[in-house]
């Protein structure tokens, strides 16, 4: 564990190296080739952390989990966005296309945040909706 009592002994240097390693892993993952990926459905949601800084009001984490035709769950996308806006979701979906994703899911599953649904209709218009 990296928190609480178990975090003793972690120097600033170790934390900096871990942070750099995690950033590099995330960069490689987010730039992976998606041309062979297919998804039956996606769960999509925006996670609001409540963390605040000078320019983060309304900032949230956009997450898409997909299920393949074989029934395997995969992280499809993780990105930051502004208040689950259509523009934020659209940018994330277009990034998936830019990395080779040929088609969206047959079904998108999410809450009532309208930004995701509007972006899904624009970028992957054949996907059905379930709220």
TrEMBL record:
<dbReference type="Pfam" id="PF00872">
    <property type="entry name" value="Transposase_mut"/>
</dbReference>
<dbReference type="GO" id="GO:0003677">
    <property type="term" value="F:DNA binding"/>
</dbReference>
<keyword id="KW-0233">DNA recombination</keyword>
<dbReference type="InterPro" id="IPR001207">
    <property type="entry name" value="Transposase_mutator"/>
</dbReference>
<dbReference type="GO" id="GO:0004803">
    <property type="term" value="F:transposase activity"/>
</dbReference>
<keyword id="KW-0815">Transposition</keyword>
<protein>
    <submittedName>
        <fullName>Transposase, mutator type</fullName>
    </submittedName>
</protein>
<keyword id="KW-0238">DNA-binding</keyword>
<dbReference type="GO" id="GO:0006313">
    <property type="term" value="P:DNA transposition"/>
</dbReference>
């Amino acid at each position: 564990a990296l928190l609480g009592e178990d975090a003793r002994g972690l120097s600033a240097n170790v934390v900096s190296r871990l942070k750099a390693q995690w950033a590099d892993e995330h960069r490689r993952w987010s730039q992976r080739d998606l041309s062979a990926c297919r998804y039956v459905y996606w769960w999509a949601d925006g996670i609001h952390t409540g963390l605040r800084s000078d320019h983060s009001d309304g900032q949230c984490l956009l997450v898409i989990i997909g299920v393949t035709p074989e029934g395997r769950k995969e992280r499809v996308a993780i990105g930051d966005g502004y208040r689950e806006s259509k523009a934020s979701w659209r940018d994330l979906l277009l990034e998936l296309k830019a990395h080779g994703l040929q088609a969206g899911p047959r079904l998108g599953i999410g809450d009532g945040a309208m930004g995701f649904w509007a972006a899904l209709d624009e970028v992957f218009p054949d996907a059905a909706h379930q709220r």
